[in-house]
Amino acid sequence: MSWLPVPARIAIGAAVTALLSLATAGCDGGQIAANVPQSSGQSFVSRSYESTFYQVGHRSAAPAVSGTTITGQRLSLDSYKGKTVVLNFWGSWCPPCRREAPALGTLASQLLPDGVRFVGIDIRDEPAAALAFMQDFNVSYPSLNDPNDEIALQFHSTVPPAAIPTTLIIDRSGRIAARIFGASTYTELKDLVAKVAGLKS
Amino acid sequence: MTTAKGDAMTPAPADGELRAAGPDLADPAGAAATTKPGNGARGGRAGGLRDSRPRGGRLGPTGWLRWFWRQLTSMRTALILLFLLALASVPGSVLPQQGVDPAAVTQYYQSHPSLAPIFNQLGLFNVFSAPWFAAIYLLLFASLAGCVLPRTIRLVGSARQKPPRAPSNLARLPASASYTTDLTPAVALDSAAGMLGGRRFRLQRGDGWVSAEKGYLREVGNLLFHIALLALLISVGLGGIFGYKANRLLIVGQGFANTPTDLDVFHPGRLVSPSDLQPFSINLQSFRAKYVTSGPQLDQPLGYYAGLSYRPQIGGATKHYMLTVNHPLVVDNVSVYLIGHGYAPVFKVTDGTGKVRWDGPVPFIPVQQTTLTSEGVVKVPDARPYQLGFAGVFLPSAVAGAGGQLESAFPGPLNPRVSLVAFKGNLGMNSGQSQSVYSLDTTGLKQLPVAPRPLSAGQSEKLPDGAGTVTYLGYQQWVSLAITYDPGQLPALISGFAALAGLILSFLVRRRRVFVRAVAGPDGGTEVSVGGLARSDAAGGFDTEFAELSQLLRAEHDGRSMRASRVGDGTVDGPADFEDGERPRPAIPAASHVAAGPANAETVAAETVTAQAATAANPETLTGREEE
User: Fold this and answer.
1) CA torsion A159→A161→A166→A167, rounded to 10°?
2) How confident is the model at residue B245 (pLDDT cuts 50, 70, 90)?
3) Per-residue model confidence as pLDDT tens digits over B461-477
4) pLDDT on residue B565
5) Domains and CATH numbers, chain A
6) Contact between chains at A153 and B279 (C-beta distance less than 8 A)
7) For B166, which DSSP code?
8) Residue B254: pLDDT band by 50, 70, 90 thresholds?
9) Which of B139, B159, B179 is the last residue of a domain?
């Protein structure tokens, strides 16, 4: 009586578990037609905001990113050597990016004399819409066009952007000193940039 | 079973403590000579069962703990937990989930302002990471592990066990036979042991008996099953911790990289960070769908072909792959599946100031699978003087329907048409509030008075109020990709197969015991009795095996005594045949069987088999009769 029922009972348990996990996990690669993306579409941060500051000695070097800007010029991060760079990953389709855009635009011109440069990386965007965004928000700094996320991918082993918008602050020696997930505000961003660049705020 | 009953009536220990099954320790088979030997082991187990429920008196803390543990690891609890787990998943599919569709959660907050905060407190918008869900899962895991682990340990013991002592009265076993031989008891036992050992029985010997057991492979199978089951649980856990799932919609001509920012839906495991994602990138170069164009199967898809180019590493060489349904692209152990497709009409939107504010494809989502009638929205937040929004329907093969309205008749793009409803005002995007790219929040919008008319490629619609112009330029196709990384998948598969193999092994192999006793008879011969017992003979067939064995044994003994008698005649002085140096007694021909010798083995076998067939029907009567 004791030999058979236990494997049997476990087998039942295992079968039920397997069925259950199938049911909850869904079936990969099945039914093409029935699968419609029921998502919000592109990922971006809604209300969450997270900023991280990396101490000197704990900063990883930013990759040597280059490409073509939305307005058609060649641009390389190398050309900003010796400057503090604020790198902003954005998209015209992303509401939090639209919210933070005025603050970024204002800071870009305010901090220009302090040797701080702003560069945008426009992700998954339509060129006409991106250009419209730049005009609409009076964005004076250049943005690299990154429709296929190739530039974001180059940050893979450093501080990868995990959401849109993501803002990275790169110090004068070309190392990533701070990271912001979510829409940044004027004061928070200004303080963080000042901290990295060693400015008096 | 009589023993068990008797034990149950004994009074409980005074301290009321739950005691482990004591009677299990000594194998009662030999000791309890008066009871049926085959049930000896069961008596012990019944005792163990009896001890598992609390009896009168109060339980101490350890008692309660032990009681709780037994309850947790019981089958009933495991089933209840499984059921609870299923039940707990229900809100996950009924309510919008934060991880899957944050916009829908936000929407739910707006439509149910009083209910949503309560649901949020209960974790109903994040069911699969809610503490109570984890509690059920972990309890279930503990329950299964708590059941499987001790059993595994017990099975290891069982697989290493030596056969028990031979019971004293072999005639009472389910299968038995007896005969007399003129060998000494010791020689008879030696040769029996040799014969059984040669057939890979595990042996134990004692004074006047040999007991042999075979079929330990059953325990190995059992063990394999249990270990594989634990491995399965762990593998599934591994996948949940280190794996991830993601979705991405990709329009022909577009590409994406495997980074969180570029995935539409991303479900990382608990210990997955963005740097852990394999850095490949994929471009969709072409897409083709084939459909049945006639007959009753009309509109049915025949096949989908997505031509991909991909780079497994950053800056690595570009490779190509034709992605079809159920033939995923595997890059760096990540599987990319083709799970959906649709149309993305291409629009050009010029605003009131004459500037082009949008010029590109917009993915529309199929609302009717058979004809791929699709819906979608176009948002132009940077249009001036008003932000513009459009809600549209795309018909791949437009025909006039019964009511005069256009509808799609075929999923292929035979006569693509798009019709739009235009809005102006505030799209609600500048506040930073997240919203779905597939729906329009019309609270701040005003519908423009334009009679919707189906546009064909190249046609424009001029918007009133100087809001601008929209042009439908044509269409692109898109595919939906599922990206899954599950490091536990292969281990889980292997464990599953191992569990199955173990289960089959434990069902097919029967564990059986054969006992031989030899005593000197009153007439100078040796009385040999053989008894057999199959534990859990589910597949049947032990009776036949036992008949064969006892017949072989008898033939062996008969053969030995023939040779032994020749030896005894004095020509050779040594015990040539007997390695242990036991000297055979001078042969005294035994009453009946010696004369028969090996030549008569056939007849003997026939006798025994018939006898055994009857034994199966009525063991008690027959064993007695065979002794004569």
Assistant:
1) 30
2) confident
3) 999 988 999 999 999 99
4) 59
5) 50-197 (3.40.30.10)
6) yes
7) P
8) very high
9) B159
Contact by Cβ (8 Å): B369, B492: no
Tell me, yes or no, whether B323 and B288 share the same domain. Answer: yes
Q: At what angle do helices B217-242 and B489-508 cross, to 10 degrees?
A: 160
Give Cα A178 distance to the centre of its chain. 13
Interface of A with B in 155-184 (CB under 8 A): 156-157, 160-164, 166, 183
Considering CB atoms only, which of B78, B256, B339 is closest to A32? B339
pTM of the model: 0.67
A29–B482: do the CB atoms touch at under 8 Å?
yes
B155 lies in a domain? Answer: yes
Of B358, B304, B294, the closest CA to residue B327 belongs to B304
Residues B194 and B342 reside in one and the same domain: no
Does residue B402 share a domain with residue B269? yes
Report ipTM for this prediction. 0.76
Residues 87-106 of chain A whose Cβ lies under 8 A from any Cβ of chain B: 89, 92-93, 95-96, 98-100
Burial B194-224 (b: 16+ CB within 10 A, else e): bbbeeeebbbbbeeebbbbbbbbbbbbbbbb
If contacts are CB pairs under 8 Å, which of residues 26-65 in chain B contact chain A?
Answer: 42, 45
Phi, psi of B487 (to 5 degrees): -65, -15
The domain of B551 spans: 163-214+510-626
Q: Which of residues 474-513 of B touch A (CB under 8 A)?
A: 480, 482, 484, 496, 499, 503, 506
Name chain B contacts of A39, Cβ cutoff 8 Å.
Answer: 100-101, 247, 264-265, 436
Give the dihedral of Cα atoms A67, A68, A70, A76; nearest 10 deg.
Answer: 60
Cβ–Cβ below 8 Å for A148 and B258: no
Largest CA distance in chain A: 86
DSSP B501-565: HHHHHHHH--EEEEEEEEEE-TTSSEEEEEEEEEES-TT--HHHHHHHHHHHHHHHHHHHHHHHH
Query: Which structure tokens are listed for B339?
Result: 């799970």
> CA nearest A117: which of A137, A155, A88?
A88
Q: How many CA atoms lie within 13 A of B168 on its CB side?
A: 7
